[in-house]
Amino acid sequence: MSQKRVYLFGNGKAEGNAKMREELGGKGANLAEMNLIGVPVPPGFTITTDCCNEYYQVGQQKIMELLNDDVMAAVKHIETLMNSKFGDKENPLLVSVRSGARASMPGMMDTILNLGLNDEG
Hints:
The chain is α+β, with helices and mostly antiparallel strands. The chain has helices spanning 21-36, 49-58, 60-82; strands spanning 6-10, 13-14, 44-47, 95-97, 112-115. The strands form 2 sheets. The chain has a 3-stranded antiparallel sheet with strand order 2-1-3, with helices on both faces. The protein has a two-stranded antiparallel ribbon with strand order 4-5. A hairpin with a 2-residue loop joins β1 and β2. α2 (49-58) runs antiparallel to α3 (60-82). The chain is globular.
């Protein structure tokens, strides 16, 4: 399994590309590629498909431990690019969570939009 579990994209840069569909899933690979060719998509990160398979081998608690530092660093990276902060009541970073399997799997997971909104303010 790949040791790199989280790939960043944003501001015209990406750690992945369209040729990495097996590793990043369809959406992850395409978002990386769109950044590389200059399409203005919001910054984000992709958790690898290998990591999703690894979840079934090691369980939820272990995968959360393995991902925590990389995901926290990825969120900080997005906060910097967007000049906002996740969970902030004045200027919250809003993110979307989407699944992106190697092959299309309709209904696999619901999309979560505007994660980061809060009731404070």
